[in-house]
Amino acid sequence: MRHDGRMQDPTRHQDWPAIHAALDRDGCARLPRLLDAEQCAGLRRCYAESERFRSRVIMQRHGFGQGEYQYFAEPLPALVQRLREALYPRLARLANAWAQRLGEATPYPDTLEQFRAQCHAAGQTRPTPLLLRYRAGDYNCLHQDLYGSVYFPLQVIVLLNQPGEDFDGGELVLVEQRPRMQSRPQVLPLHRGDAAVIATDHRPAQGARGWYRLKLRHGVSRIERGERHTLGIIFHDAA
Question: Domains, the chain, ranges and CATH?
C-alpha cells in the first residue's frame, strides 16, 4: 500500500454534513472515491495471502448465503487501519447524536482506541475488518454485523471492483423494518472505490410520540457474472 496524502486522512475530501444528513434520513450514505484503483487492487490481492487473516467463513455452511469472507488478523494492513481510525471520529459524532435522541446513556468516545478499550473490557478482543469475495451465483442474505453486547451503530462497506466491467449483479441491498408498516428496501449503487456507510442495527426516526428505532439489515443480491470483492470496516471487536 502506498503512503500518500490520503493515508494521513483518507476521509478529508468527503462532504460530511451531507453524509450525516443522508444517514439521518435513510440510514445509509455514499462516500464517493474513498479509495483509488491502485488501493482497491492492493486490497483484492490481500485475499490470497492467508497469513493476513484470523479466520475464513464459507457462507453456505452457515446459511448466510453463498460466497466467502475472511477476517483480518492484527496488525491490520496499514490502509485498513488508517481508514478505521479516520472514519471512527467522523461517525462517532453522529452516533452520539443518535444515542441522545433515543435516550441511550453511554456516549461513544472520541477515538477508536478508546472505543476498542470498551470492547475489550466486555471480552470482545478479536478484530472485525474483513474482505468478502463473491463469484457468479453468490449472494449474501440480509443480516446485521453484531458480535457482542458492545457495538458501534455505523459501519462502512467499500466496493473493490467495477460494476459492469468486473461483475454484473451484486447490488448492495438494505431493508428498513418499520413498525406496523411493510419493510422499505433500498439499493445503494456503488462504483469501484466508493464506500457505503450504513446503520449496523437501527437508526432513530421521529414519530408523533417522539423518537423511535428503525431496524435495518443489509445484504448483497446474486452475482450474475464475474467476481466482486468488498472491504468491510466494522468498528467494534468480536467476542
Answer: 16-233 (2.60.120.620)
